[in-house]
TrEMBL record, chains A, B:
Keywords: Thiamine pyrophosphate, Transferase. The keyword Membrane does not apply. It comes from Caulobacter vibrioides (strain NA1000 / CB15N) (Caulobacter crescentus). GO terms for molecular function: acetolactate synthase activity; flavin adenine dinucleotide binding; magnesium ion binding; thiamine pyrophosphate binding. Its EC number is 2.2.1.6. Pfam families: TPP_enzyme_C, TPP_enzyme_N. Residues 1-106 form the Thiamine pyrophosphate enzyme N-terminal TPP-binding domain. Residues 375-509 form the Thiamine pyrophosphate enzyme TPP-binding domain. This is Acetolactate synthase. GO terms for biological process: small molecule metabolic process. Transmembrane segments: none annotated.
């Protein structure tokens, strides 16, 4: 057993059985050791941002960490944007970052860099295994750290000699930390505050949007409390049979309008709402004048238990309202996000997982699917576009029996287009819908909002993706994926229904 | 004039007139200000790694910095791998990293992160412009820092409010720092050491491979001193009319074999040679037993002046040997890197710029082109693959009258494939050659060298790119680029000759 064996065995012993990898020379021992640990499924990604986004998607759906395998500082850096998103989703991820042999670092070879310093800003835990015998125990530490609670990125730096030297120990079996029980005093205080409020809202964060927490929040809705979620949540149980909260609008002024008159915001596993970006002369904090803010529980607490305790304290009904299945009418005519959302709602099967990197198209589809078959919706939590395809890969590896739908803007999709190849290679049941509006549409909106005025030709050119026009069908086919382009609502509906009925990789370019 | 105007004006005043950009909401003021500064050419890149690699290529060829425009921490991170390469090339680059408004950071909105901490490991200078009036002066500081000497990454964090607020000052005109004059004592000491050595070599780093420094090194070669360069140099003047040094082999054992019996290594703008990676039971430092190491000059010194001073001190001839043009025979039969190199040497025009990210195919082509028409060769200095296409973009923007050739492995090319789109959009005279061997071929070699043994099926799968097979012609066409696939030496020669004779973007997939 060398250090790499100790690492992979410790990971597998603790249920970390998926590895999204883009290895290099310093990781060859790890790669070789994979053949000695059949419990580990390794998935090659052609760019590290695909690997880290996939680990995020896996963690959100499996409720346990995958690992990534990254090649020194630059490999980590390539994956850091999607790890930023994972951090904001509180997803457990174990990143194994290969490094030069310990004694080789001092010579500052070309690939040398300060990996720990690079990884620190996005991580809850960073350590380097300086000896073969430290690899297993540190891997166990990393797993615990990744779980949290709440979860996050744990980065284990693996020097090449720690991997190739003989190891005498592997790491222990560890128990994932449990979320804390709700604090009785907080429950009582919030119950009292709700009693005195005339227009209270409950705001749910990522940790409070699973099926159990939403059912508990539904009880409070039945009691008359309006329930909202953060604009972007890691994973939300939606559709048939689920309670449907509202969503805090993305633009701050719309959020404040929506909260107009609210005199109490109760935070559940989230923080005081703030605008996604600052704008001249607009507020950062999205709390109306005179509104007080109370916290039911932080992210380290079992949100479902806290919400049920609150519901019990208020004497709320045992169950709240849930959606009954209702499909929109068949869309017709012009192809827009509303039409696409209607088709999706009509045809996606029960338990579909939606990875949303659709940017401006996301909200219409979110709205259209509110009463669709039961599904999980995974949002872009950290604002770093390029998450849609990678997240879908990880979700599909975690849940091989569920249909996965990656919704991506064309600008966002180009960031991690390499992921299409991995979808095909792993024969994942992923349908990719690309919203081909040939623009960074959101930036056209934001340019005006930031007070930057109307774009001149130079500015307009930086928001435009139409010259040359990207042909997503050719791109997908170039990476081995079956693809088609549709330009009307009817054609989309037909293509999408076919994709839902047929397992396996497929891309639909929605020409908008 | 707002802060963004002050920034762009200061940049343009100081000759920073190319901006490789992937902006987001927090950069809209900068984007808008571009229309008020016609001296700045902005180039949209669909992924930040393309933007930073392009800035590296621009800096290597223009000898002055370009700027990048990046969107907060994740945008920087996406560009960090190619900035790692730029750091190792000592290329001057000014990175403008947009940030939230200063007052908005404390609220920890989703895109918030510690940008300065992320940027520090790859940078020579990182500062944040906290007010509109600090933007211009700090931009001038960043430019000076980027120049060095030697050059490096300077990162100017630009909070949104510093960009949109009114500025009363722009930054000063600054003078790029000059490289230092050679130190007479060092020259004398090296001259003396050379006099006492029986088998000395001169080792040239990135800063000593320009035309003037190589001509000076040629004088020493004429005096009987063997001249080598580092394995990977930022920019090397090669071919007809240039002195041709040898290159230190990539693999450590080959380097040591090449240096066998050498009793003196003289470092010129470089460091003691070390192996690219560590391997079990192989040395890290590539200096033979008993060989002494002397330094003629560090990277902050004018290497050409130092080499000429040394040549003068030794009484070396006024000029050394230079290559005369000699083309290999027309290649025939099987298409391999040697055949491709022959075709390149036969057809590339004078002053071609070669961006080399060809990995295992690089050395054969380097060898074949040794007596080709005069050209510049840009190496992968930092080992972070995915540099080839981006670097070519920047080189082509810097040198619009020169043919640019991007040589890329298929694995490397997939990292930043988005760059093809920018080549087309900007109508750059870039020919991309993709070595489609459908494998991470280098890793197959390295797996054995690291002692990791023969790959089992799991390991082999992580080195293989052939399932599904990537169709580079479709990929290129999907991004608007004319492309063709060739599978024989004759077909390559014909396609390549045509590409050289025709201006504009073109991709050749070399099926190997």
């Amino acid at each position: 057993m060398n250090g790499a064996d100790a690492l992979i065995t410790t990971l597998a012993d603790n249920g970390v059985t998926a590895c999204f990898a883009n290895p290099g020379t310093s990781e060859m021992q790890f790669v070789s050791a994979l053949d000695r640990e059949p419990r580990m499924r390794s998935v090659l990604c052609l760019f590290e941002g695909v690997a880290t986004g996939a680990a995020d998607g896996y963690g959100r759906m499996a409720g346990k960490p995958a690992c990534t395998l990254l090649h020194l500082g630059p490999g980590y850096a390539n994956g850091a944007a999607n790890l930023h998103n994972a951090r904001r989703a509180f997803t457990p991820v174990v990143n194994v970052i290969g490094d030069h042999a310990t004694y080789h670092r001092d010579f500052d070879a070309p690939l040398n860099s300060d990996i720990a310093a690079l990884a620190a800003p996005n991580s809850v835990w960073v350590k380097s295994a300086e000896t073969a015998d430290s690899v297993g125990p540190l891997a166990a530490e990393a797993i615990i750290a990744a779980y949290g609670t709440p979860g996050g990125n744990a980065c284990l730096v693996l020097p090449a000699d720690a991997a190739w030297n003989e190891a005498t120990v592997k790491g222990p079996m560890v128990t994932p930390p449990a979320f804390a029980a709700p604090d009785a005093a907080s429950v009582e205080a919030v119950a009292k505050a709700l009693g005195g409020a005339t227009k209270p809202v409950l705001l749910l964060g990522s940790g409070a949007c699973g099926e159990a927490a939403l059912a508990a929040a539904g009880r409070l809705a039945a009691h008359g409390v309006r329930v909202l979620t953060d604009t972007f949540t890691a994973r939300q149980a939606r559709g048939e049979g689920r309670f449907r909260p509202d969503k805090l609008p993305y633009f701050g002024e719309l959020a404040l309008k929506d909260l107009d008159g609210v005199d109490l915001i109760v935070l559940v596993a989230t923080q005081t709402p703030v605008a996604f970006f600052a704008y001249p002369d607009r507020p950062s904090v999205l709390v109306p004048e005179g509104c007080s803010v109370e916290t039911l529980c932080g992210r380290e607490v079992d949100a479902a238990a806290a919400l049920n305790a609150l519901a019990d304290a208020l004497g709320a009904p045992a169950a709240g309202p849930v959606e009954t299945y209702a499909a929109p009418d068949a869309p017709a005519g012009r192809l827009d996000a509303w039409a696409i959302g209607a088709a999706i709602a009509r045809h996606m099967p029960t338990d579909t997982i939606i990875s949303d990197d659709a940017v401006t198209a996301g909200l219409p589809i979110f709205t259209q699917t509110k009463a669709a078959r039961a599904h999980d919706w995974l949002s872009l939590t950290g604002g770093a576009i390029g998450q849609g395809i990678p997240l879908a890969i990880g979700a599909a590896v975690a849940c091989p029996d569920r249909k996965v739908l990656a919704l991506t803007g064309d600008g966002a999709g180009m960031y991690t287009v390499q992921g299409l190849w991995t979808v095909v290679r792993e024969k994942l049941d992923v349908t990719v819908v690309v919203f081909a509006n040939h623009a960074y549409r959101i930036l056209g909106i934001e340019l005006g909002r930031t007070g930057a005025g109307n774009p001149g030709p130079a500015a307009a050119k930086l928001l435009d993706l139409g010259d040359p026009r990207i042909d997503w069908v050719k791109l997908a086919e170039g990476l081995g994926m079956a693809a088609e382009r549709v330009a009307t609502a009817e054609a989309f509906e037909e293509a999408f229904a076919r994709a839902m009925a047929t397992p396996g990789p497929r891309l639909i370019e929605a020409a908008m």
